[in-house]
Amino acid sequence: MALVACGSSESLDNSDAAEDTIVIGSQDYYSNEIIAEIYAQALETHDIEVQRDFRIGQREVYMPEIENGSVDLFPEYSGPLLQYWEPEPQARRSEDVYAALVDATPDGLKVLNQADATDQDSYVVTREFAEANGLTTIADLAKVTGPLVLGANSEAENRPNGPKGLKEAYGIDAGFTPIEDSGGPLTVKAMKDGTVQLAIIYSADPSIKQNDLVVLEDPEGLFLASHVVPIASEELSEEAQEVINKVNKALTSAALVSLNAKSIEQQAPASTIATEWLEQQQL
Description:
Blueprint: E1 22-25, H1 30-45, E2 50-53, H2 59-67, E3 73-77, H3 78-85, H4 94-104, E4 109-111, E5 121-126, H5 127-133, E6 149-152, H6 163-170, E7 175-178, H7 185-193, E8 198-202, H8 207-210, E9 213-215, E10 228-233, H9 238-250, H10 253-265, H11 270-281
Helix pairs in contact: 1-9, 1-11, 3-4
């Protein structure tokens, strides 16, 4: 999934954390930070000490920190995480992807239960562009006679769902323009301006509905199923695992869209959004 490209490549310094403190990380993406904050507050409710290391950066930056034990718990996404460890997986659908992810997880780590909530990478176009070119699926992009440029965070250019993946799965050529806001307002503006014709935006992003954008169907399964799934140290206590699994059981796709909307529309901080949701769920 495409995220804001920032964060340091230097190892995190968690030397001040007590031995039994759980270090929780998050991507530099508002939705992921909300989930991480929900995890943190849920654990604190059970008198489990946590340390927050949020908005670390991209998967290429934070995964080494998880693998070397600097981070104990991290909200991830099943499909993209599987592709990180297994670049060309055969699994495409939800349960198959999760099972493959469990098998691909390195020693010292484990994946907890995946949530119903999905935040699926998707190819998105404006309503006007879709109607002008008769687009409902990604395959329909072959009908476009003018230039076709994909806009997304810079790392997407070399990821499986970038221009190379589009060519391999659908035989469609596209240029690439980096836009470093994870499908945010700059990306939407670029589509409306015609700077790019196609963008990668998360399916749980409220901006899709707000801007009347069209998500193109993916009949070839270019985008793997992408459920919220925690990646954790295998040393994480049973109590902590039970807390996180209970949270994930309550986290639906509709709930995630609602949480994201509070961040975008109300500019509410992740801590407030997390507190309100946990109270509503009585977790």
